Amino acid sequence: MRLIIYTGKGGTGKTVNSCSTAIKLADLNHKTLIISSDPAHTLEDAFVVSAVGNKPIKVLDGLYALQVDPVLELAENYGAILSYVASIFSRRGLDETLSYEIAMLPGMTQLFSLLRIEEFIRHDKFDCIVLDMPASGEALRYLYFPKLVGNIGEKLLGFTGVFSGFAKMFQPFSSFAQIPPDVIQVEINLLKRLELLSKIIIDPKITSLRLIVNPDTFSIENAKRALMSANLYGINVDVVIINKIFPSDVPNSYFTRWIEYQSRKIQEAKTSFYPLHIIEERFYEKELKGIEMLRENAEAIFDNEDPSRVFYSDKVFEFVKSGSTLILRLKAPFTNKDNFEINRYGDNLAIKVLGATGYIVNVIPLPVATITMKLFEVKIHDGIIEVTFKE
Ligand SMILES: Nc1ncnc2c1ncn2[C@@H]1O[C@H](COP(=O)(O)OP(=O)(O)OP(=O)(O)O)[C@@H](O)[C@H]1O
Ligand SMILES: [Mg+2]
């Protein structure tokens, strides 16, 4: 079983590459499901098919597509919690629709897409699931959420759970003396599912997060933050796709500077994401869509590889906290104590390494915990740079 998640900045090509990956997986006889929660129904646009809805529909032999409708999902499975909270509001004279709107916790929608995945994995219905995540800096938090809520929930379960805890805040407004038992039961089930989901997400043999960037500063910086968060959350990132690269022989001088600029950005991305598996994808002469074109793209980017392979499975960098000390460990092969330099700029750490072709700089976003800490010392051994922060 494999779960492959694509993320990246808006418009970088998450949907089309999710679709290309899914087609190639199906062509290699892996029974595959592609899931999107984009309300714009982009799977239909990419595959040029209609009727992708809340149940898997067949797109090709071995390939199914599903569009999660989070509101429907919530109403069907967690209606008990929702109606309980909504009923408290509406009893206070609030319009019913509005009550439901308020009862939805922020971030719920993404969480329910993930719970849908848990269900398919539990029932072992597919060999591979490809998830086209929405563009959002927050997207990774949703992947972390199951672990967080699962952990807290477990601790609280004996007393009160997360959602009934939320409901409890409104208890003074309610005419119920107690939280109804069905609300608590739904919540216990939910916590169990979140626990399983978090185990799936941090298992590098099951889950791979793949980053899509374009050769530009904005999307590369966005992906670097995603990589840092993924490392912190313990989610394995194995592939970076650099998409929308202009071929160097474009017969139009208008693009000359773009081509030069892109080639610098491609180098930068390769340095930043070393040693992940890097795929370069060209900017096609027309919009990338439709099954045949997506399949050709999959052949071009994966070549003879099976996209379900785990292309890389080790942390690029990690933060280890012990008491008031936080240590950043970064893999930096070919580096020795004389050819690198480290500087801190606010919440970023700039690491400058002298390589064969000049200096390469990697800027690593620091976790919030370092704000009150000082950079204490920097050591290097066996190709690993160790930076210690202290309170
Ligand atoms: N390599 C490419 N060559 C040509 N067109 C491309 C390429 N990659 C993506 N596109 C086109 O760019 C547009 C955006 O792609 P896509 O919808 O996959 O991005 P996305 O990251 O999913 O966007 P969103 O953040 O809105 O979900 C689409 O029209 C797609 O066909
Ligand atoms: Mg998309």
TrEMBL record:
Pfam families: ArsA_ATPase. SUPFAM superfamilies: P-loop containing nucleoside triphosphate hydrolases. It comes from the Archaea. Residues 1-301 form the ArsA/GET3 Anion-transporting ATPase-like domain. GO terms for molecular function: ATP binding; ATP hydrolysis activity. InterPro entries: ArsA/GET3_ATPase-like, ATPase_ArsA/GET3, P-loop_NTPase. Belongs to the arsA ATPase family. This is Arsenical pump-driving ATPase. It comes from Candidatus Nitrosocosmicus oleophilus. The lineage of its organism: Archaea, Nitrososphaerota, Nitrososphaeria, Nitrososphaerales, Nitrososphaeraceae.
